[in-house]
Structures are given as C-alpha cells and as structure tokens.
Write a structure and sequence with these properties.
Blueprint: E1 11-15, H1 20-31, E2 35-40, H2 43-55, E3 60-64, H3 70-84, E4 89-92, H4 107-135, E5 139-144, H5 158-178, E6 183-190, H6 196-199, H7 221-232, E7 243-246
Parallel strand pairs: 1-2, 1-4, 2-3, 4-5, 5-6, 6-7
The structure holds nicotinamide-adenine-dinucleotide (NAD).
Nicotinamide-adenine-dinucleotide binds next to helix 1 and helix 6.
Length: about 250
C-alpha cells in the first residue's frame, strides 16, 4: 500500500467500536497500521474487541465513555491522550437508531437521539480537536451519519434523522473552523448494515424507501470502514467537508 494510504504510527479513536460498524472501522484502520482505541459505553465489549484485535496482531486499547455524559467524554479523551498520545483520527461512529413515529414522538426519544448522535460527537470533536490543534500535527475527523439523510429512510426516523442532520451540520462547521490547523472533517453515510444496533432497533416496522433492494446488495461494516479509511489517510489531506454514501447503489435503485 502506498505510504500515503497508511496509518502506521498514528492513533485512531473510534467511538462505538465495540459493535457493528465500529468493529469494522476499528479493524480496517488497524490493518492500515493505526493503533486503535475503542471508545464505548459498553466497557466489557470495548475491552473484548481490543483484546481480539491484539490477538490478531494489531495494536489496540479500550476506553470507557458515555457520550451522553459531558464529564465522561472529557475524562475519556484526557485518558486517551495521556496514555496513547493525541489521536490522528477521531471517528464519531457511535449512535442509537431506535424508531418512533413522528406523530407519536416523545421528547425523551428526541433528546436521546440529539444527546448521543449529535451532542456526543460535538463533545468528542471539541475535546480531541483541542488536542489536535495543540499538537500541531493536523488530524482527521470522520462523522458517521446515515443514507437516510439522502432518501434511504424508513418510517419512525424523525428524531434519528434530525440528529444525523445535526451531525452533518457539525461536519460543515468543524471543517471550517479546523481547516487552518490541517484538520479535515468529513462525513460517511452508511446504508443498511446488519448490526446488533440496526437489527435490534425498537419501534414501528421499518417501512419506506430504505427497504428497497439495492443493486449491490447489503453492506458489511467493512464497506463503511473503507470510506472512513480514505478520509483518515494522509492522502486525503485536501478533502474536507465532503460526504461519501456507502449505500450499495441505492441512488440507482
Ligand atoms: N447499521 C446500519 O444500518 C446503519 C445505517 C446508517 C447509519 N448507521 C450509523 O452507524 C453507526 C454505528 O451503527 P451500528 O449499526 O454499528 O450500531 P450498534 O448499535 O451495533 O453499535 C453502536 C455502538 O455504539 C455504542 N454506544 C451507544 N450509545 C453510546 C454512548 N452513549 N456512549 C458511547 N458509546 C455508545 C454501543 O455500545 C455500540 O457498541 C451509528 O451512528 C448509526 O446511526 C448505521
């Protein structure tokens, strides 16, 4: 692999790395040479994933973080920086994806989505962004939203899509404010991926265009991870505020 596509000697911090798409992202970044820190509210799951990656010959560690708790985010980011150094790449992947119909929507569900899917990435970006700026080496931030934002949606996603729209807005704002420090911020839009989170999502039946059969079939976590990897590499240094949809061809279905 050309050096500019490698992450050797660089630290990657992946939220939600204990499950689903986050596992794929953590493994693909590690295969590209990164030391990967799995950050998750599921402490034992994060530890198990880090140990599995170490057993596979990679460099990995775990940190417990609850994105819903500002103090937890601040402490976890400080711990990562103290133990492993300033991350080169932050992947804001963790999220919740339960459904609730718009006309039956509750404030609790709305706030849960905003808190974990939008405020959590904001706090992570603030904490790691400060360290990246102080470190002076530039960096990469990749936000995982959803192809629901461009039409691959089902019923019951009002709160979810609003939170992912906020995340897409965060990409734009942080790309602008961090560009002068050589830090890029980009968005990956995952299509449907069979994960514990998507298969276990609660709520009304997932009816809507997101149910359409896509020309290329169902995505795997590693398909999403490959787009994350591109944004994370030194090769992508002039690419910021951009979006890649990994949607198995939904737009031509
Ligand atoms: N799976 C899909 O079809 C799909 C499609 C589009 C977008 N996405 C997005 O991709 C991301 C990953 O989804 P997934 O399907 O792998 O989900 P998942 O539920 O399988 O994994 C999510 C991980 O995030 C962690 N997490 C949840 N709340 C947290 C919190 N408060 N603090 C820290 N960690 C927390 C969970 O413990 C879990 O390990 C999410 O942002 C999701 O919205 C998924």
């Amino acid at each position: 692999m050309a050096q500019r596509f490698k992450l050797t000697g660089r630290v990657a911090l992946v939220t939600g790395g204990a499950s689903g798409i986050g596992v794929g992202i953590a493994e693909v970044l590690a295969e590209a040479g990164a030391m990967v820190v799995i950050a998750d509210v599921d402490a034992s799951g994060a530890q198990a994933q880090a140990e599995a990656m170490i057993a596979a010959g990679h460099d990995a560690a775990a940190v417990t973080v609850d994105l819903a708790d500002e103090a937890s985010v601040v402490a976890a980011c400080a711990e990562v920086i103290a133990k492993h150094g300033v991350p080169w790449v932050l992947v804001n992947n963790a999220g919740v994806q339960h459904r609730e119909l718009l006309l039956e929507g509750s404030v609790a569900h709305w706030e849960l989505n905003q808190t974990i899917n939008a405020r959590g990435p904001f706090l992570m970006t603030r904490e790691i962004g400060k360290a990246m700026v102080a470190g002076g080496q530039g960096g990469r931030i990749v936000n995982c939203a959803t192809t629901g934002l461009i039409g691959q949606a089902v019923h019951g996603l009002a709160a979810y899509l609003a939170s992912k729209g906020a995340l897409a807005g965060l990409t734009r704002a942080s790309a602008m404010e961090l560009a002068e420090y050589g830090i890029t911020v980009n968005t990956v839009l995952p299509g449907g991926v069979g994960t514990p989170g998507s298969m276990g999502a609660k709520g009304p039946p997932p009816e809507g265009p997101g149910r359409r059969i896509t020309p290329l079939g169902f995505c795997e976590p590693r398909d999403i991870a490959s787009a994350v990897l591109y944004f994370a590499t030194p090769a992508a240094r002039y690419v910021t505020n951009q979006t890649i949809a990994v949607d198995a061809g939904f737009s031509i279905s």
